[in-house]
Amino acid sequence: EPEVTQTPSHQVTQMGQEVILRCVPISNHLYFYWYRQILGQKVEFLVSFYNNEISEKSEIFDDQFSVERPDGSNFTLKIRSTKLEDSAMYFCASRVRGLSPLHFGNGTRLTVT
Amino acid sequence: AQRVTQPEKLLSVFKGAPVELKCNYSYSGSPELFWYVQYSRQRLQLLLRHISRESIKGFTADLNKGETSFHLKKPFAQEEDSAMYYCALSGDKETSGSRLTFGEGTQLTVNP
Question: How far from A58 is each of A4, A46, A62, B1, B102, CA to CA, in Å?
Fold first, then answer.
């Protein structure tokens, strides 16, 4: 069964550094998402992406965050200047259509020191 | 605004006992409700969704609009059911693909 893949599985970075989290959604999927989960807290929506543009974003997704689909397969989340509070598990997800089931990747654990 | 509440962070039952994981939601329109499961060291996986009205791994969940609940039930818990369970809600925005709002999660432990 095809899966959403995320790399790296764990990223450690220093405060103020830029970080790029990578995702390869399932190939025939059209809608892409990023969620995050701070340790001990709930999974939170960050952003959705469709037709090469952001379709919805949460209050968390401020100017420090950006997403990109640079080619036909990758979907990236960039954090320009990381803060300690950005430490979390970041999940990429994709779906075929707007209301079809969401498929999640294994997540990238981001640690900001 | 959409909101999902799972009142129990931890739930522990014995093998063979019935289990119910509670979920309440708040949404003004017609939501779609889901249960996701995360086994140890694995990804979030869709367990079931209310519109399909099916039973997966012996679990069922019925949407109760009057009580705004979507509790997950299984009559006889198994040890392999031990996992983190998340209730999630999606709004009714068809064209852009609605965000999922998750509850806090319930860690289910089934003891032998």
Answer: 22, 5, 8, 12, 14
| Tokens matching residue A74 | 């990758």
Cα of B97 to nearest chain A Cα, Å: 4
Q: What's the CA gap between B74 and B18, in Å, rounded?
A: 6
Q: For residue range B5-22, what is the model confidence (pLDDT) as tens digits?
A: 999 999 999 999 999 999
User: Which of A35, A45, A98 lies at the smallest CB-CB distance from B96?
Assistant: A98
How confident is the model over A45-101, as pLDDT tens digits?
999 999 899 999 999 999 999 999 988 789 999 999 999 999 999 999 999 876 678
- Within 10 Å of residue A28's Cβ, how many Cβ atoms? 8
| Interface residue B45 vs chain A (CB under 8 A) | yes
Give the integer Cα–Cα distance in Å for A53 and A87: 26
In three-state secondary structure terms, B80 is helix
Residue B24 vs residues A20, B43, B104: alpha-carbon distances, Å: 36, 24, 11
Q: Which two tokens stand for residue A42?
A: 């709930």
Chain B nearest-CA residue for A105: B43
CA-CA distance, B19 to B74, in Å (whole number)?
5
- Sign for the CA dihedral angle at B22, B26, B32, B34 comes to negative
Nearest alpha-carbon partner for A48 in B38, B55, B98: B98
Distances (CA, A) of B84 to A37, A100, B11, B40, B109: 13, 22, 10, 8, 9
3-state secondary structure of B100: strand
